[in-house]
Amino acid sequence: KDVYQIAVVHGDGIGPEVCAAAVEVVKAALGPGCPLRFTEYPAGAEHFLKTGQSFPQPTFEACRAADAILHGAGGLPGVVYPDGTEAGLDFTLRLRFELDLYANIRPIRLFEGVTSPLAGVKAGDIDYVILRENSEGLYAARGAGALLRGEVAVDTLVQTRAGIERIVRKAFELARQSSGAPRDGVRRVTCCDKANVLRSYAFFRSVFDEVAKDYPDIATEHALIDAMAMHLVLKPGHFNVIVSENMFGDILSDLAAATVGGMGMAPSAEVGDANGFFQAAHGSAPDIAGKGIANPYGTILSAAAMLDWLGRGHGDERLPRAAEQIRRVTEACLANGLLSADLKGKSSTAEITGNVCDRLAA
Ligand code: IPM
Ligand code: MN
């Protein structure tokens, strides 16, 4: 491909700041012949306040047609529908469902230079991937829940055999492709559920066990979600690839991010068979928006994942090469103390972005 069309949605709060940073970094990594064309489209809470629409149809069409989608962050507290749910989340949630972005890949890695709140862990000790099912589970109830007579609220958790099977296969493939570090020489997929209490999770586990038979080279284990929350604090070095239902994956993502420096260090890739959507796992952080101090690393690393995905899909080696450079330079910047306020540093978003770009150009 000569040109890749990237649909860019800045979104709300710090979204525009971190998104612009990531675009700058990608352009620097690919140089003057950069084959990516970035086009901005509106969506989010602020757009909803202005126009009454959180996710305009033309933005949806552009996202569907694009080769990849890059997002800053969406949502603002108080910008809600009459039922109390946030309007600004439509962009992210509708893309997931309507483009069938079933795999949400969230690498959790402790970088040199970043301090973990966990005692005694150093760079490299934490390096695993949370694979969050992104198209069903409890989130499938978004917009479809019921409130009965103002007294009883119901949301339904949906898990299908096909949905579980494809996310579990993806987990094993990620383990084979050496996502995350092998532990004690073992590549391992951990199935995280609540099979002891709920039928839907028992089903998830049983489909996991069936699919696992096709991957005899990968070790497997089960962990209950509550115990998992503890394990991610007490023995994060044990894990390689963790697969779970949508809502559990959402919750574990934030816990895991906290162990490697916080939400600012949590990249994410949401992919289906046809489309890819890239944004950090964090929210729009309106409290620090516009101050120029937001941590851009999560979005920069998400953009690197976008280049990997595009390159793999199109057999274009330039893109993963650029992604690798972005990761190397990011690592060097962090190790050199280029830290934003959330990482207890003093560097601004612009300073970090400028440094990353300079090193890429060098
Ligand atoms: C995430 C976010 C989203 C979610 C929000 C923004 C809809 O928290 O990507 O983890 O709940 O999935
Ligand atoms: Mn989340």
UniProtKB/TrEMBL annotation:
Cofactor(s) demanded: Mg(2+); Mn(2+)
Enzyme class: oxidoreductase
Domain of life, per lineage: Bacteria
Domain Isopropylmalate dehydrogenase-like: 5-356
Leader sequence segment: none
One GO MF term: magnesium ion binding
Similarity annotation: Belongs to the isocitrate and isopropylmalate dehydrogenases family. LeuB type 1 subfamily.
Name assigned to this protein: 3-isopropylmalate dehydrogenase
Organism: Mesorhizobium atlanticum
Species lineage: Bacteria, Pseudomonadati, Pseudomonadota, Alphaproteobacteria, Hyphomicrobiales
